[in-house]
Structure formats: C-alpha cells, structure tokens
C-alpha cells in the first residue's frame, strides 16, 4: 500500500511539473516575441527538450503502475492531459521560432516593440550576492531594480518565480523590465553586492 501511495505521489509531482513547465514556456515565448529577445527564445527551446523528456517519463510512470480495468479510464485521462501540456510546449516553441529564425513581426507588433522600453536579461547569481539565501519576496528585486523575474534557472530545472522561492548561488535569473534596471540587477546578483 505504501508503495502505491509513493508511486501515485510521483505521478502527481510529474504531472504538476509538466503543467508548470508548459505554462512557463508560454510566458517566456510570448515575452521573447514581444521583446524580440533571442535569449528568451533560446530558453524556450531548451525547455522544449526538457518537456519531451518529462512527458516520456510521465507516460512510463503511468504505464508502469499496475492498474485495474476500472482505473484505466482515469489514467487514460491523465495521459491525455499530459499530452495537452506537451502540445502547449510545442506551440510555445513555435512562437519562439519566429524570433530565432529572424522573421519580421507583423507591423503592429513591430511598432509595439519599438515603443517598448523593456529589455530581457539572464544574470547568474554569484556566491557573495545579497540575493543568496533570500526568497524572492524578501529580495524585492522589482523594487530595487525595476526588473521582474520571469523564471529562475537552477541547473537543468526552470522554476516559476514564486514569492517563497529561495535564491541559490549559481541560479540564473531571467528578468524583464526597463533597460535602466539592467545594471542594478547585475549589481544585486554579483559577488560585490554583499560587500556594499
């Protein structure tokens, strides 16, 4: 019984990861298009590769679970839901392709991009940064820099920026905001920030 509960929890966790990853990809893909950011588009493509692996892992987990004929209909629903998350991820990658292939956006979108004063950046968090060990709410990155954290890349994982997410040394912050905040965010994430 304990083994079944552990398997079920693993399936739930993997499903949540699929959902969260596909949502993050859509956010990053639209941002890459609106901000004409090759950096964000590349992140979307890296996530799409991860999503393929997650989807396969999820299906194998579900198929490996010994299920009764009565349960099979419910599990089929889970497999289909995972497939929808995979389709969302594929759509996000197609949006990012527009930026990566250098296609010209529609004239209306081009005007909006030109009018925008926003920028997107990736910044690594150094060991001595004041951000290390603080959660995003405590860090007040937006208040300090005017930049919004869109995602946190931690090794091979991409994390959504929840208020209680603690920043670690080696994390990469993906942030958007006014261009004037770029240097402020670099400073916060640098080793020198703890000394000032």
Write the layout of secondary structure elements.
Layout lengths: L1 H33 L3 H27 L4 H32 L6 H9 L2 E7 L11 H4 L1 H5 L1 E8 L2 E3 L12 E7 L3 H8 L7
Antiparallel strand pairs: 1-4, 2-3, 2-4
Contiguous low-pLDDT stretches (5 residues minimum) are none
Number of helices: 7
Over the alpha carbons, how many angstroms does the gyration radius reach?
A: 19 Å
Shape: flat
User: For the record, what CATH class of the largest domain applies?
Assistant: Mainly Alpha
Task: Give the helix/strand class.
Answer: alpha+beta
Characterize the main sheet: 4 strands, antiparallel
Task: Kindly state the number of beta strands.
Answer: 4
What would you say this structure looks like, in words?
- The protein is α+β, with helices and mostly antiparallel strands and 196 residues long.
- It folds into 2 domains: 2-107, Phosphate transport system protein phou homolog 2, domain 2 (Methane Monooxygenase Hydroxylase, Chain G, domain 1, Up-down Bundle); 117-194, Alpha-Beta Plaits (2-Layer Sandwich), CATH 3.30.70.1450.
- The chain has helices at 2-34, 38-64, 69-100, 107-115, 136-139, 141-145, 182-189; strands at residues 118-124, 147-154, 157-159, 172-178.
- The termini are far apart.
